[in-house]
Inverse folding.
């Protein structure tokens, strides 16, 4: 697929490699979709990157994403069935350049667990989207397929904006 971002060109290859961790509560719904959306756009635009996802809680460690997340990603040609949930760990705050929480509670949890000497920038994912700053990505867990589709729309928009920002 072609890069959906205009003006991404040769200068992309000279930039610092972004390393991004997407974080929600259990790492089975929102954050795996955010990781998948970012990987897809960054790869399509030729941006060398590292992306992962994790949860602030250990509820689902070692488990695959929610079947509805897997289905939503598949609708966009992406297989996330082999992703495995994990919990955020202290080393993540040095390993990643950016850690994006999907909602306010998880951002607060991340701030509370940030170790001394952390180098990653912490923010809400939608803070990167003009007009959506301070907004959370709603948790689709208790909803239907339409909630997962809405989550995909939000994380895909943020992924495109991130790629544009890393092109600067």
């Amino acid at each position: 697929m072609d890069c959906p971002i205009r003006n991404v060109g040769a200068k992309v290859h000279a930039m610092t490699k972004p390393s991004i961790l997407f974080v929600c509560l259990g790492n089975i719904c929102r954050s795996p979709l955010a990781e998948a959306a970012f990987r897809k756009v960054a790869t399509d635009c030729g941006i060398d990157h590292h992306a992962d996802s994790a949860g602030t809680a250990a509820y689902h460690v070692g488990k695959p994403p929610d079947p509805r997340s897997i289905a939503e990603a598949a609708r966009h040609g992406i297989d996330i069935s082999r992703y495995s949930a994990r919990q955020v760990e202290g080393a993540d705050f040095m390993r990643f350049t950016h850690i994006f929480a999907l909602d306010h509670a998880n951002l607060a949890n991340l701030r509370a667990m940030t170790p001394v000497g952390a180098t990653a920038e912490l923010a809400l994912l939608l803070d990167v989207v003009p007009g959506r700053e301070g907004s959370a990505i709603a948790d689709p867990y208790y909803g239907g397929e339409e909630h997962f589709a809405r989550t995909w729309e939000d994380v895909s928009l943020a992924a495109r904006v991130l790629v544009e920002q890393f092109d600067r």
